[in-house]
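1st attempt posting a full record on here, be nice pls
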Amino acid sequence: ALELIDFKNALEQFQNLVEKMIIQKTKEISGSYTKDDEEIDYEKFYTTTQTLFGPAVKHQNVQAFFRKVMSNPDERPEWLEIFGCFTGESDGMSSPSKESMVLLVSEKRQITHSVVKRKDVIKGIVKVPLQHFTITASQRGVLTVFSKKRKSFFSYSFYFHQDPTWINGCDFLPNLNYVVAVTESTVILWDYKSKESQSDGFVIKPMKNCLLCVSTVTMADNLAKDTILMGDDKGYVYLLTITSDDFIMKQSKAEKESQFKVLDSESFNIPKRKLHDDWVGKIRYFSALKRFGSCSTDSINSFILDDIKRLEDQLPVKEFSVPKGVNAFTYCGKAKVIVTGG
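the predicted structure (as tokens):
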């Protein structure tokens, strides 16, 4: 309660400061302003704002707010922008109170845990809402799960050292409860629940072409199986279904110094179809549409949107052509549109 009272006092002083700035700028425009000791320049505005709110405000947000006021005093920005929060146009719904917006600011957290080393980069990041965690995969083989529990983040990761090739993407298998990742020649299934020193899982290999992306096919059933889509550097899209029985029936002995069991890719039925004439840059399944999408820098078959059954037959697929191809795409259910970026 005391913090809330202090914030209200600080906010009131801040709004008074902005009013003085607007009056000053309006007089400058009309030519009636005379400089005095009360003049508010950027340095004074920044120092006062820092004093009122402390480290909660960032330099770039203060600078942007000041520029907005000075460039157009009639269209004053919302005070929320001083914290880097921006409000959209009203859609007729009641807007949250200022106090609740302050709580949104206070919930921002920065993860300081370093999951990659020098010269390594994040190649995939997937949010898993039902499990309340986020998965990242680094190019050199570090898979990490960030889980939010007890109002704090913790992470557990392991370094996949079996395959010297790079990891190109990752996703989550909701029914089998595994993290899936693809390298140039293998499919990794990581049991993230195992201890870091005893990480175990499965490796499906060898894959003939270089795998570049992966996506889980989300179905309504709760069977002990998951289906994944993969794209490669030859324009092929693969459909791989994995069941819990596969972990028992098809595994070979674990390799030395690792708990990962090898599954022979030849023992799986993996339908594939060539949909693009260039690399498959991204693949994703849209459960709302019951369709998958895949894109490529191919100028003719740039974007495909169709049923996964098309991967097991040779019927025509719905395709979209863009000069120089498509590098990224996403679907918005509310607007019912698909947006592509080339």
